[in-house]
Amino acid sequence: xxxxxxxxxxxxxxxxxxxxxxxxxxxxxxxxxxxxxxxxxxxxxxxxxxxxxxxxxxxxxxxxxxxxxxxxxxxxxxxxxxxxxxxxxxxxxxxxxxxxxxxxxxxxxxxxxxxxxxxxxxxxxxxxxxxxxxxxxxxxxxxxxxxxxxxxxxxxxxxxxxxxxxxxxxxxxxxxxxxxxxxxxxxxxxxxxxxxxxxxxxxxxxxxxxxxxxxxxxxxxxxxxxxxxxxxxxxxxxxxxxxxxxxxxxxxxxxxxxxxxxxxxxxxxxxxxxxxxxxxxxxxxxxxxxxxxxxxxxxxxxxxxxx
Length: 307
Known about the structure:
The chain crosses the membrane at residues 42-60, 72-94, 100-124, 136-155, 175-197, 204-225, 254-279. The protein is 82% helix and 0% strand. The protein is an all-alpha fold.
């Protein structure tokens, strides 16, 4: 019972992050599952099975609000499903000893992206730069799907920035299309894991409580994003992901670092983490102050309605 409650809290926390940042459900939940000693393939399989429900609900919600470009979904979702199936098959073939460091390395990279992305720039914004070519979308989906399955997450952090950079799709349709495409990725990855490791290593009670925790957190996340700045949350979560996966890597057979090296590494990561959060807080306060200064000017420039 204690383990199920812990897993429900993992799903709850991961959905709070994802609902506030628009990404990082898989990265956060897989990091937490690895931290409690879960087998890498079983951890990713558990997350993707739970995501079948969460991504379906999310995709339908975005569809109802006209936030989905189905052409984009097809161009990235189908290759993403192929990449996810391949990634699940690859991860299933690895032993726990070799799989955990590989997954932690991927998660560490994604955590660094989240930390830097939100600390430096805050929420992704629309970029009116050179449009992406169509032939780029299929490889993008393929790579994002493979990373998502082998790392237990990464579809959003890999796919969303690339689509935003195109400037051809409004941000709301980027997020909606990525979320809708993630359903195909979750189904394909789950199928790959079920073929690769079977059902004996997957506890479906875990899947259920992760899903339950995510469902409970969804409306709270919608409230949270209105009160807690995503820029600050992104820095905090990115640092947590980095810290946890650095710990896993240093203790793995790949590195087997001494206690002294581990402590020094933890101190360095903690200092960088704290500095990023402080920087994000100051940047958010600066932006709010600038917004307050510009608001009266914008009101003065508004045309006066004719009598």
